[in-house]
Amino acid sequence: MKPDQFRRLALALPEVVEGAHHDHPDFRAHGRVFASLHPDGAQAMVKVPLDVQQRLVAAGFGKPASGAWGRAGCTMVVLAAVQVAAVREALTEAWQFAAASAVRKPARKAAAKRRAR
Prior knowledge:
alpha+beta; Aspartate Aminotransferase, domain 1; 4 helices; globular
């Protein structure tokens, strides 16, 4: 897979915009980064729930990013080593996780305000 293919797959998901994060392209849903392309063009990252990350790693799709990023679900993938269908599935999982996170965040803020009263 080439970086442009990864970009097209990410941007094909609903309401996704391309931005920049740490000097490389990222893909956002509802304001939340769910995927990015590494500056070297050989790797990409998808941010998925930890159970999905474990499944992807076990299937040989990629490996957790180092440190806290990996513990948060960021999963690195070597683009030349993956199939388009696997990337499409991982991007969809990451997009759904970002959308769900965006919905939960305002609800947590509202609950905190209620508790503070």
